[in-house]
Amino acid sequence: MHQVSNCSGSELSFNVGHERTMVFVDKKKKADYIAAFLCQEKISATSIHGDREQREREVALQDFRSGKCPVLVATSVAARGLDIENVQHVINFDLPSTIEEYVHRIGRTGRCGNTGKAVCFFDSSSDGHLAQSLVKVLSDAQQEVPVWLEEIAFGFQGERVFTSVNTQKLCIFKVLSISETNFGQLA
């Protein structure tokens, strides 16, 4: 993994493509936008969210499970209750509102003894309420807690950060500048 200097969207494709990857977002429109962006970048992707017809959701899931579209961009509501095996990557483009949902999302890479990576974008202004819980989850899992996360959790106002979670070893990296993201328009 590497530090990212800004997020223009192409960083989403740095480690996805042929391996089964789930990308979680907070808005239906953003799910469609990111899936379309990845397709333009020659990465087969599909989206699933509550505004899609049941048949469209079934086709998207079948395409994801079969590997035809190895990237599934989903809202939390649409992804709830899905049991999908062999997910190598989870990308939390938008962190969920609760730590329980976070643990559920990243746990998708560690099912049945498999390992994978979970990548998260963290914005202290919108995700800061999760900082203390993230510190606790990491500590309880005997993972190294990054200094920047402790600083955010205990009062330091940080900037947007990028995290990479390997289900066997945790690594977290700080984004130097992410304010110029194209995805900010979709919030």
UniProtKB/TrEMBL annotation:
Q: Which residues form the Helicase C-terminal domain?
A: 8-153
Alphabetized Pfam families for the sequence = Helicase_C
Q: What is this protein called?
A: RNA helicase
**Any idea of its EC number?**
3.6.4.13
Any one GO MF term held by the record is: ATP binding
Task: For this UniProt record, give its keywords in alphabetical order, as a comma-separated list.
Answer: ATP-binding, Helicase, Hydrolase, Nucleotide-binding
Q: Would I find Manganese among this entry's keywords?
A: no
Q: Which organism is it from?
A: Mycteria americana
